[in-house]
Amino acid sequence: MMTPTAQAYAELQQAYDFFNERLFEARLPACLLTFQRERRSYGYFSHEAFVDSTTGKTTDEIALNCAYFATVPLIEILQTLAHEMVHLWQFRFGKPSRKGYHNKEFAAKMKAIGLMPSSTGMPGGEEVGQHMADYVIPGGPFLAACKTLLETSFRITWMDRHPIQPQHNPTPEILKDDPAAEELVTLGAFSMPAESLVASVTRPAGTIDSPGGAGEVGAPTPVTDRSNRLKFTCEKCGDNIWGKPSLANVKHGGECGDAAFVRA
Question: Which of 37-51, 88-102, 109-123, 157-171 bottoms out in mean pLDDT, i.e. has the lowest?
Fold first, then answer.
């Protein structure tokens, strides 16, 4: 039986390898995929962050913030991975600007793979800048790649039971009428874990938090739905999705088979 560590990292590697082939023509080199808990980011890329102590060979790092895994849809986690892969692409094949700045070359590559850079994470935001989020381009390569990946029953299994609440709406209204996005609903792209799996905001005894600094975990915010959309729950597994009324009775698929999402 696969250990939690092996399973968690194998899933990240599977997604990285899949996107590398589908969105980057398999040009990206292997890197070190890690988890992190930086409260202010979903993830980060660090060029040549690790070195092999026996050979001196370096490798890049892509880190994903597992503290958000329970409070954002699966597609948002995959967006973060693809975003950081664009940073890796630019460092290896392009011309990155100063540290942390997302320039026009970065924006162009993001759009080429089907993600729209946006300073707000929503339509209308700036496409270049120091701090940059993104949203899915309807009908783009990223959306198609996600559909194919999720058809393999891909999932993120392990997540923090004491999560951080995101500061923005992770699924912009631009996707609400996209047929591909509707199809991804049944594949779990917009699902989040059942709230019963998420513990209270107090971290358990034995958890050590840093007293300060960028890596501090602090007291996570409870999971809530702050959007103006309706909440639906799978009648079998308890996964939650949010969206328009037409999502009622949509079949979850996968391991849940014909079980439907019902109004919560």
Answer: 157-171
CA-CA distance, 199 to 122, in Å (whole number)? 30
The pLDDT tens digits of the residues spanning 4-26 come to: 999 999 999 999 999 999 999 99
Q: Which residue has the tokens 């107090």?
A: 202
Percent of the chain at pLDDT above 70?
A: 72
Burial class (CB in 10 A: 0-12, 13-18, 19+), 252: buried
Residues forming beta bridges with residue 34, ordered by sequence position: 63
**Structural domain spans, the chain:** 4-99+135-198, 230-263
Q: 173 exposed, middle or buried (CB, 10 Å; 0-12, 13-18, 19+)?
A: middle
Contacts of 196 (CB under 8 A, 6+ apart): 238
In contact, 61 and 32? CB cutoff 8 Å: yes
Q: Scanning the structure block, which residue is given the tokens 């049944």?
A: 186
What are the pLDDT digits (tens) for 38-66? 877 899 999 999 999 999 999 999 999 99
Cα separation values, 143 from 23, 80, 107, 160, 180, Å: 11, 13, 17, 26, 7
Contact 134, 125 (CB under 8 A): no
Contacts of 208 (CB under 8 A, 6+ apart): none
- Secondary structure string (H, E, C) spanning 245-263: HHHCCCECCHHHCCCEEEE
